[in-house]
Amino acid sequence: MGRSPCCEQAHTNKGAWTKEEDQRLLEYIRIHGEGCWRSLPKAAGLLRCGKSCRLRWINYLRPDVKRGNFTEEEDQLIIKLHSLLGNKWSLIAARLPGRTDNEIKNYWNTHIKRKLVSNGIDPQTHRPLNQAATDANTVPNTPTTELDFRNVPRVSNNKFTAKPSLDFKSNEFRIKAKAESLEEGNSSSSGMTTDEEQQQQQQQQQHKDEYPGDGQELNLDLSIGISSSGKKKKKKNSTTGESKPQLDYRNFHFPGQASICLCCQLGFQTSEICRNCQNTNWFNRYC
DNA sequence: AATCGGACCAACCGCCCTACC
DNA sequence: TGGTAGGGCGGTTGGTCCGAT
């Protein structure tokens, strides 16, 4: 059952890395470069699993790893990206130079989550907590399907709507997300009571506090290509056994906006040349 | 000074995807 | 076309630190 271990578990060290191990790994990668993690430990004289070496290198030893506290700007960017991408830590990390997915994940779980909760925001849905609770009670418990829109990362709160659609002809799953200007006074036409209006205004104020850069119109037209490969499997939750739909983010593209990266679209880059656009990861493919 | 509990974070685990044969 | 190795990802665990009592 299952895969065989990636290495001989009986002869590998576990736990914290020693300085000597770090030194060996650094020295080996300095000479031979990254890659072939499975064979690396033996070649480098390390009693470690290849995966462990990779993690150590990526999360700690890599020279471009930025250490230290997160700035307020980084905080806001993480929150924003999480509202768009969900727990896709590697994707979020790709937008924060020098930060690793593990670091961001830890920071989210220990700091930002609590901060959002204290501000009355549901960290998973990015909507006001009371509303998230209401939604949780009203959403029918339908079986999970290949394209379960409930599991698509939500695009922020009630003023930030996501409209998923499936185009079978083009084999594309499209999310149209539009952030309406919070400055527009449009609640009066909704037929809400005064109390509801006040509540919504409070929520909007919370949203402003949470997303200071959200005053402007933001129009995302994200397309996610569905892999045509028959080999693609649905990810199973290890505890519940529930399947989750897999979105192929590498096929994300931004119709009509192909020359701007997501970061720039969101207005987080103020310099003429976005630093992130210089990266070579897939997310910047269209930059 | 000792103990306890919460916060933090490095590291591990299990699963999945993709390239390759 | 199917099997497998290698690499990557998200979730979880466990050790350490530090402040409160």
From TrEMBL:
Q: What is the designated name of this protein?
A: Transcription factor MYB6
Where in the cell does this protein reside? Nucleus
HTH myb-type domain location: 13-61, 62-116
**A Gene Ontology term for the protein's cellular component:** nucleus
Pfam families reported in the protein's UniProt record: Myb_DNA-binding
* Protein source organism: Abelmoschus esculentus (okra)
- Give this protein's Gene Ontology molecular function annotations: transcription cis-regulatory region binding
CDD domains attached here? SANT (cd00167)
> Which UniProt keyword terms apply here?
DNA-binding, Nucleus, Repeat, Transcription, Transcription regulation
SUPFAM superfamilies noted in UniProt: Homeodomain-like
Reply yes or no: does the keyword Cytoplasm apply: no
Chain positions covered by the region annotation Disordered:
120-147, 179-248
Which residues fall in a compositionally biased region of kind Polar residues? 127-145
From which domain of life does this come? Eukaryota
InterPro entries with a match to the protein in the record:
Homeodomain-like_sf, Myb_dom, Myb_TF_plants, SANT/Myb
Q: Where is the Myb-like domain?
A: 9-61, 62-112
